[in-house]
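User: Show me sequence and structure for the first protein, then do the same for the second.

Assistant: Starting with the first protein.
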Amino acid sequence: MEGVMDSDASGVGEAKAGRKHWLDNVRWAVVAVVVVYHVFYMYNAEGIVGVVGKITDFTVQPYDVFQYEVYPWIMMVLFIVSGIASRLYLERHTDREFIKSRTTKLLVPCTVGLVAFQFIQGYINASIGGAFLNNQDVPLVGKIVIAILSGIGVLWYIQLLWLFSLLLVLVRKLEKDRLWKRCGALGGPLLPVLMVAFVVPVWAAAQVLNTPIICVYRFGLYFCVFLLGYFLFSHDVVVAGLKKYFFLFLPLALGLGAAFCISYFGQNYADKPVNRSPLFVAYGWFACLAILGGFARFLNFENAFTRWMSTRSWGLYVFHYLGISAVGLYIAKPGLLHPAATYVLTLLAGFAAGYGLNWLISRLPFFRWAVLGIQRKKFGRLSLHAAR
């Protein structure tokens, strides 16, 4: 996003006067948290596979608790924001324009982009996981296919978001804004009770349409919160309620978060049964409410720093893991640096790769379209919030 919400690129589509700066700020802040999360994730001691794993001599890495503190809500809140953004975009654009925009901004980077660039990420991912070492008899063509498919990485989010966008168009044709208008009446004094009640359907959604092995594809949970973003949290009156009751939702989230960390620290938080537990869902839900309410109440502004972060958060999301995983493979795995220095270098590499590759790729013909979903007419504008 630029100084104004770029509806074509971001899907937010607000007019200048009614712009919601807090949505921008939620987006870039959560993406920054995702970068930090992936640093701890790369060297986790909880047995989560596909990464380098523990590089220290500690029996227990107490700082790994950061993963438990943020994992239940980081993607939930991004899907909620995407739902809000979709509603705001569709208020000024047709369904056809919405599908066309989302296809360019979401589908192209996670299909064409895999072949054009993300195979590099795939090669590193496969190398960390030992795919090439354990399959030495695989022909070159097979290794290329493995590298391309492994390059999906963090792009699973925009894969789901593209699918949800198509489903949303079908839902809109059926409900014709009747449900959306009714949801606007939920912002009254009963809002806290209703938010507590919503834990039940969100938990139920978390139990269904979860893919085995690749546990990030949680179609039920993420589609549920995406729709809640579209139907519920896109109403100003509901957001006003979140602002009003922020000091109720915040201690609930903090308490549930502490209980979750104490109950499950050391277990695989990213897979069943932990990620389907009532405590996981309740903590994630109330953390989302506190984040939305807090940002809307205290961070609904724009300055030079927030504008800079906003215009680059999409590129940071797309490219950060390449820097993190490269350090993991070539520095951490052979043990070339002290673990503390490795953590610092990995964090710096995540942000450097995110911002540096974003700067470079956004200026290269074809690649800016294939990798970042920037249409030709957008060249020269840093409207890189394609998946938001």
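Switching to the second protein now.
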Amino acid sequence: MHPTPSRRLGLLAVVVTAVLWGTTGTAATFAPDVGPLAIGAAALGIGGLLQAAVAVRPIQRARPVLAARWPLVLVGGVAVAVYPLAFYTAMHTAGVAIGSVVSLASAPVASGVLERVVDRRPLGARWGTAVVIGVVGSTALCLSGTASSDPGTGNGTDPGGTVAGIALGLVAGATYALYSWTAHRLMTRSVPRAAAMGAVFGTGGLLLLPVLLLTGAPLLATPTNTAVGLYMALVPMAAGYLLFGIGLESVPPSTATTVTLLEPAVATVLAVTVVGERLAPAGWVGLALVGVALVVLVASPARSTARGPGNAPTPPLS
């Protein structure tokens, strides 16, 4: 069975999302004096509120369904708020390589656990193969650059910082998986895509506003810092999550989070071509493995999301 056109479109939307997300690291290098909490709060705080703003009418039309599913919306919103704070702080404390690997590599596993345990959906051998290849590839890719990391940027040489960064990376991976799952679950519970994404990310954006107010002063210190903050909010976050929502309509969260392992590959290519960093041979091997993982996912047949008696999801949070 070949992938359906809707699944191909969904996979393409998630691939473009990963490309946009992969630009955030390069963008952040232009505002080195802005802290990780400010970057995270600006990116998903403003980006989340923009998601809600463009979905005002769909949210209003879906209000009765959203009200009935409010615990799911709240859980997703909290996950959206926690994710960027944990993700950017993990990279700051443990280093970009370790923080990225733990956060992004743990997300597909967490998504798979959610789908298997809560939705009772079989994941399939192709997904497992793609996850293993993708995790190994992204790990090789990220760790290949640690030797040339600047100690002043937090490369994880402090054991305490490394442990804290790994813990925060696991939190980031879990919350990334959780908000992806909640948005997808809302869509399968008669909530239109725009309303589901707008409600979840709007809630997260509201929760991030206090953090932005407390930490965001450096974003206004220079025009460059402001431009970086606006870019992060408008392009990789607002536009990226719009495309991510399109992908989640036809692609399960476990597959979507696996595809976004492409993000560190894009970030590495940009670091080499724009920032001027050099990539070790292991990094090029990692790039190739990430590409193989994507091919495995694209070639795999669509899994049915119909909820029959044998695979009916359990009712928590909905």
